[in-house]
Amino acid sequence: MPKLRASDVDSLFARADKLLDQYPRSFGTAKALLQEVLTAQPDHLEALHALNWAYERDRDHSPGQWQGQFQEPQRAVRGRILELTKKVKADGGDTVAHRARALALAQHAENILRTDPTPARLKQAEELLAESQSLAADRPEQRRAERGVMAWKAIHRARKGRPDAYQELLDWVAENPRPSPFHPDDHASAFRGMEGAFADEGFLEWLRARKPQVAKGQRAKDLVQGMRHVGDWDVSAELKGPVTTPCRVGRLLALRALGAKLEFKVGGKSLLERAKKLGDKALVRELEALSGAKPDAEGKAPTAKKSKAAKNAREVSAPKKPSAAKRAPAAKQPAPDVYTTAQVFADVHVTSDGTVMVLAGTPHPDSDHGYTAGDDLWDFDKGIPWNQPWDDRVWLEQIHMDIDEDELESNGLSYDVDFNRLLIHDGKTWTRTKLPKALPHGYVAPILRDLGAPWGLSAFGVSALAFDGGGKGWKVKEVSGPGGLNLVDAVVHDGVLYGLCEANGLGRLVPEGKNLSLELLGDEQSGLHRLFSHEGTLYAFGDDGVFVLEDGTLARRQPTRAPVRALCAAPEQGVYLHTDEHAWYLPRKGKAQKLALPKDGIHSIDFFKNRLFVSVGEQVLRLEKDRAVTVKLPSPAPGVARLVVAGDRLWTVFPHHLTSSRDGKQFEPIAFR
Q1: pTM (predicted TM-score)
Q2: Distance (Å, whole) CA 165 – CA 156
Q3: How many C-beta neighbours within 10 Å does residue 69 have?
Q4: HSE of 532 in the Cβ direction (CA atoms, 13 Å)?
Q5: Residue 291 and residue 293: Cα distance in Å, rounded?
Q6: d(Cα 673, Cα 669) in Å, to the nearest integer?
Q7: How far is residue 511 CA from its own chain's centroid?
């Protein structure tokens, strides 16, 4: 890429600065332009400050997305700002340097207070906050550190033998009865900065020992709203989450101590049911312990022990059981298989409201005409469940088809698959639906993409793009283009919809009447299989390595001797990539670095919770700093895993079963029956 002149950099920044005011429509474009400015001038302080501020807006309006995608990049930007402005003094000035350093210092102070600070670290946070306030007083972001310093000081006093200091935190909740860590700092319910303090075990034990107050009138209503924040707002689709936070139990116990009732329901679901949807195990355990019981005289949390009177009553009323010697031994029955299906899984996506969407292939007749085109065996007989176990086989003789045998090819039925089904779990049950009829004609790419408005979730056929329009019902647009068109992927990058054709290469998907046309960029280039948009760069990869979009054409970024199978995010704005035998870390600039992995064949990689996960051989590895840890996975059916990060979970997509994890350590299988 040619070096930008100073005037070009100024022009890019001016465009970005203007677009930042158009949230959210042009926010992504603005951040991409700021990244271009920083690529040309890494120490452009005004661009660094603007990008840091932009990440703050992401945190305010899309905390789930911020936590998963932008938290670490913002940390790097903040560090660079602090380094560049370390000589700035509190001299009453109001320059970009003063404002940038004030914001970064407040953020750094809050970051220290997220976990239990030592007295020295707490003092450091106070000093950072004081310096921030001396540079630019009364910034909303400074209130996080102010709350955090107040909370941790109280906890430190309590640890020194003054448990009444905890009352200061409870008094704060009494004055702010709707605390939520997902509200902006100028909101009446703002809570940021106190998350770590409200997870302190000493404070939690003190709260459990409190006898709940009696709340009436407006106070009772406010406390109900606070409980809604704990069990309902935290899973709101607006968060683009779900979002992890350590403070839900502390907020729950504080609100309970002030008189909040636990029995109310949100959307017909109890707090416990909502907690299970959140996936917050600590909150689930606390609610299970609290349900139907009160703290004892010593203030301990309720246990499962029964009173002597209750025990005696149970023994009198219960019929006497036969002795072990008289009971006939029962044959141990194998657990039913509820975790596999005969569907062949390709990809998984989780919508903003938590709905799980699985792209699946189904065995279907080879015939490309008549009633059988794109159908599968379960479509012919509704009495056969589509979600039967993976090793069940349904043959032609077992079903009843009201079609002519001539409609089938002479070789009968095959078990080739086409990825033309969506399996949908709405939090309660699974349903299965076909993709639009125009799409299954021929090859369907084994991938789902969320292309944003107006497309929404999308899938790709040979010459068609199917999209759900943001949940408004699936539609299809036919795609025209060069000869041999075979659409395999599409992404939106810098506001432009790009499509990838395996036979011809990268192009823009532009309107043509009611449908779309693929306009190629540069010369035709075959052998590209996927696209990946990351940190302002559009990657295309395939048989000959990794390419990036530069100045309207694809430029080779990393050649490989074997086809590149996948790319995923990596630290420092880089990417990880792999072939069947090797994997590399590719920085934003510079040469790729090969990773040391077992030589058992690499199937998939993805980056989750600041760790690289690799599906290699018949295992999945989590790469720690100094070793590779084998992840323990349920394996109800054979196969190797494709790794997918979706909905703040890491998914292992096996051919006939799925597992997922919220922490990258414990994986649970997904039930289909």
Answers
A1: 0.51
A2: 9
A3: 17
A4: 25
A5: 6
A6: 12
A7: 31
Whether the bond into 212 is cis, omega within 30 of 0: no
Nearest Cα to 550, choosing from 536, 569, 561, 560? 536
Look up residue 194 and give its DSSP letter.
Answer: -
Q: How far apart are CA 196 and CA 245, in angstroms?
A: 9
Q: Which helix (H) or strand (E) holds 425?
A: strand 417-425
Measure CA 597 to chain center: 26
Q: Which single residue is written with the structure tokens 């997918």?
A: 644
Helices (H) and strands (E) in the chain — how many of each?
16, 30
Instruction: Check: CB of residue 195 under 8 Å from CB of residue 245.
Output: yes
Chain-centre distance of CA 578, in angstroms?
22
DSSP string, 338-358: -S--SSEEEEEEE-TT--EEE
Where do we find the tokens 């429509």? Answer: 25
Token pair for 600: 């058992």
Neighbours of 638 (CB within 10 A): 13
Q: In what order do the strands lie in the sheet with 464-467?
A: 449-450, 457-461, 464-467, 475-480, 515-520, 505-512, 496-501, 487-493
Element (H, E) at 16: helix 6-19
What is the 8-class DSSP label of residue 438?
Answer: T
Question: Residue 165 is inside which H or E element, if any?
Answer: none
Closest to 612 measured CA to CA, from 576, 640, 579: 576
Alpha-carbon distance of 657 to 493, in angstroms, equals: 32
Answer yes or no: are the C-beta atoms of 459 and 468 closer than 8 Å: no
Q: How far from 98 is each of 45, 56, 134, 410, 475, CA to CA, in Å?
A: 11, 18, 10, 78, 52
Identity of the residue numbered 525: Q
pLDDT at 145: 92
The pLDDT value recorded for residue 12 is 86
pLDDT at 188: 61
Pairwise CA distance, residues 134 & 531, whole Å: 47
Distance of CA 491 to CAs 17, 450, 486, 513, 647, Å? 25, 8, 16, 21, 19
Q: Tokens at residue 397, please?
A: 């003789």
330 DSSP assignment: P
Q: CA-CA distances (angstroms) from residue 632 to 204, 269, 629, 665?
A: 32, 33, 9, 8
Mean pLDDT, consecutive 10-residue stretches, the chain (673 aa), reads: 70 85 69 88 94 87 77 90 93 91 94 90 94 88 92 94 92 84 67 89 93 89 81 51 72 92 75 76 86 44 36 37 47 72 86 90 44 45 69 47 40 48 88 71 78 91 85 85 84 94 91 93 88 95 94 93 93 93 93 88 93 92 90 85 94 91 94 88
- Count Cβ atoms below 10 Å from residue 671 Cβ, excluding itself: 14
3-state secondary structure 113-139: CCCCCCHHHHHHHHHHHHHHHHHCCCC
How many residues does the structure list for the chain?
673
Residue type for position 383: G
Q: Collapse the DSSP code of 399 into the 3-class scheme (helix H, G, I; strand E, B; otherwise coil) and give the result.
A: coil
CA 250 to chain centre: 24
Please tell me the predicted confidence (pLDDT) of residue 348: 95
- For 242, residues 6+ apart whose C-beta sits below 8 A from its C-beta are 64, 234, 235, 278, 279, 354, 647, 648
Q: What integer pLDDT is reported at residue 332 of this predicted model?
A: 53
Q: Is the dihedral of CA 154, 159, 162, 163 positive or negative?
A: positive
What local confidence, expressed as pLDDT, does residue 296 receive? 38
> Which helix or strand (DSSP H or E) is residue 265 part of?
strand 265-266
Q: Which of 155, 82, 90 is nearest to 118 (CA)?
A: 155
